[in-house]
Amino acid sequence: DADVTQTPRNRITKTGKRIMLECSQTKGHDRMYWYRQDPGLGLRLIYYSFDVKDINKGEISDGYSVSRQAQAKFSLSLESAIPNQTALYFCATSDPSGRANSGELFFGEGSRLTVL
Amino acid sequence: GNSVTQMEGPVTLSEEAFLTINCTYTATGYPSLFWYVQYPGEGLQLLLKATKADDKGSNKGFEATYRKETTSFHLEKGSVQVSDSAVYFCALSGNPGNTGKLIFGQGTTLQVKP
Question: For chain A, N or C: smaller number of CB within 10 Å?
Answer without folding.
Answer: N
